[in-house]
Amino acid sequence: MNDSSWGAPPAAGQAGYWGPTERGPVQGAAPAGPAYDAPEAQQTRPMPIVPDVPAYGGDQDDDRGAARLSGPLFRRQPPHTRSHDTPQARPSEAAPQNPEPMPDAPQPAPQPQKKSAGRDLSAAIGVGVGLGVVIVASLFIVKALFVGVIAVAVVVGLWELTKRLEERKGVKAPVVPLALGGAAMVVAGYVRGAEGAWVSMALTALAVLVWRMTEPPEGYLKDVTAGVFAAFYVPFLATFVAMMLTADDGPWRVLTFLLLTVVSDTGAYAIGWRFGKHKLAPRISPGKTREGLLGAVSFAMVAGALCMQFLIDDGIWWQGLLLGLAVAASATLGDLGESMIKRDLGIKDMGTLLPGHGGIMDRLDSLLPTAPVVWLLLVLFVGSG
Predict the structure, then answer these.
(1) 259-263 — which CB contacts under 8 Å span 24+ positions?
(2) Dihedrals φ, ψ of 285, to 5°?
(3) Does 240 score more than 60 pLDDT?
(4) Is the pTM of this model over 0.90?
(5) 28 in Cβ contact with 1 (< 8 Å)
(6) pLDDT class for 384, splitting at 50, 70, 90?
């Protein structure tokens, strides 16, 4: 036990001290104090010799089952509560009957923890395959049907985004004009091209401004600002996918866009999960690494070269290398941008519609900013026809 818990030994003749020191009881000296002034003091039994114990505070005194002395004599009491009437400890109480192993005994080595993907991979793969079948089937059977798929994804994405803004920030972006204008924007981009997309974007923003006037003016500026941002971020960027579809080889262009984005994300995940050590943007997305970014670039460039050579009319493999590099950069920036929004909102996912993936917006995060990049590069490389 710690010496400080018992107090320093008193000087000779000082009343009130009794009991052994760290070296055992004082031999040949009669204790002083009122309790020993009676004649019967000579008939008292000698103090039992107690084995040395380590000072309190060592490893043996840890509260997690370590060995310690027990009994009234070794109970740690405040100095003012001790009296000379405290009964002496019995020899059988000097040490525990079944002491546990010392803390420094060899312990089994901890098992290394396996890396976890953080999501239900079986559900994620199943949902991904199902979405892929729907997209490919609508893409190559009827182009207009695929435009409808884009419009539905846009409306659901707008609903998720505006709902999270209202829940977490109290921002009430007008949902009705955003949903109607977003769907119209996709259709206009498919029918009238870039001109139709810009006109629809302007009309949607105007509808947001007017619709919000029907409510009290408090918060008007932040609500309409969020509405215009949502109109640009979701439906306007998605319109470039519909504009890709208008080319003669439109379905193959859209398929190239989807494949490169998925391959970029897959390469980043596979390489980052296996070899990732250096964080890319720890304050925004702690799971992304520089090694993962290199994996995204490598996978996307190889896939881009193959797609441009075999899927795109008049495409050349070196153009695919540049296309893959641009897709890896835009997809990563889009993912980081979505992570920034979710961190500001204090949420992990935008929704729960897709098991293993989150919400629609959690799947559109890298696709939306990549769509205009792929559309522009394909127009520059092989034209818009």
Answers:
(1) 259/303, 259/307, 260/300, 260/303, 260/304, 260/307, 260/323, 260/324, 260/327, 260/370, 260/374, 261/327, 261/331, 261/366, 261/367, 261/370, 263/299, 263/300, 263/303
(2) -140, 95
(3) yes
(4) no
(5) no
(6) confident
Q: Which helix (H) or strand (E) holds 288?
A: strand 285-289
Give the SS3 label for residue 253.
helix
Q: How far does CA 254 lie from the centroid of its chain? A: 32
**Which DSSP string corresponds to 21-83?**
BTTBSPTT-PPPSGGG-SGGGGGSPPPPP----PPTTSGGG-TTT-----SGGG----GGG--
- The domain limits of the chain are 138-246, 248-385
What is the greatest pairwise CA distance in the chain? 121
Average pLDDT over residues 232-258: 96
Q: What are phi and psi of 289, to 5 degrees?
A: -125, 165
Tokens 């659901």: give the residue. Answer: 156
Which pairs from 68-74 meet CB under 8 Å and 24+ separation? 68/96, 69/1, 69/94, 69/95, 69/96, 70/95, 70/96, 73/19, 74/1
